Amino acid sequence: xxxxIQNKINIHTLWLLMIALTLLSYAMGKFGFSGLISVLILxxxxxxxxxxxxxxxxxxxxxxxxxxxxxxxxxxSVSLSIAIIYLFST
Amino acid sequence: xxxxxxxxEPKLLPGDLAIWFFIFMELLVFAIAxxxxxxxxxxxxxxxxxxxxxxxxxxxxxxxxxxxxSSYFVIxxxxxxxxxxxKACINNLNIALGFGAGFLLLKxxxxxxxxxxxxxxxxxxxxxxxxxxxxxxxxxxILGMIILGAIAFKAKRGNYSAVNHFGVESGASYWHMxxxxxxILFPLxxxxx
Lengths: 90, 193
Description:
The complex is a heterodimer. By secondary structure, chain A is an all-alpha fold. Chain A contains 4 helices and no strands. Chain A has one domain. Chain B is mainly alpha-helical. Chain B has a single domain, classed as Four Helix Bundle (Hemerythrin (Met), subunit A), CATH 1.20.120. Chain B is built from 7 helices and no strands. In chain B, helix 2 runs parallel beside helix 7 and helix 4 runs antiparallel to helix 7. At the A-B interface, helix 2, helix 3 and helix 4 of A face helix 2, helix 4 and helix 7 of B.
C-alpha cells in the first residue's frame, strides 16, 4: 500500500493536488466560511501547497538541513503568526 | 554494518547560491508585509471584512491555479534539461511563460476594475495594503518572467545541457518563490475573514 501511494506521488499528481486544494480554499471563501477553524484549514491548505513547492518543485528534499530549516521555517512561522494574530483579534 | 554507518552527503542547493540569498531576502520582506497586514487587519476588523468582499475571489483563485500550473511547467523544464532534452525544456518554459502572462493579464483586469472605480492607495487602509502587497508581488511576477524568458532564450542558443543546467535551476527557483508567496497571499487577502 505504501509503495502504491509512493508510486502515485509525482509532480503531475502533486500539481493536481495543489489545484484541488486551491479550489477548496476558493469554495470556503465563496460559501462565507469564517472563524478560527476555517482559518486553520485555509492555512493548513497553504502549508501543504507551500511544502510541495519547497520539497518537490524547488527540489530541496535532501539538501542541507540549514536550507530546509530556512524555507520550511519561513512557511510555518508566517502561517503560525497569521493564526496567532487572528486568534487574538477575535 | 558498514552500510548502516555510511552517512549520505546532503544534496547541493539547486542553482546558484546567490539566487538563494536573493530568495531568502525576498521571503523576509514578504513575511514582514504579511504580518503587518495581519496585525493591521486585527486593528481594523470591520473595514477589512467589509472591503475584502469587494475583491474578486474568482480572479484570485484562477490566478493561483495559473501560477501553480506555471510552476509545474517550470519543474518539467528543469527535468527535461537534466535529461539533455533542450527542446522539451524550451517548450515547457514557453508554456510556463504563457501561464505567467495569463496571471498578469487577469491581475491587470482586477486593477483596471479597481482604478476605474476611483480606488487608490489612499482610499482606506485595506486598499492601501491590498494594492501595495499585490502590486509588489505583480512586479516580482514580471521579474520572474524576464528571468524565465532569458533562460528560454539562452536554452535556444544551446547554452544549457544535462551537464550545465545551473542557470535553468536558478531561474526556476526564483519562479517557485514567486508562486510560494502567492500561495500565502491568496488566502490571507482574499479568503480569510
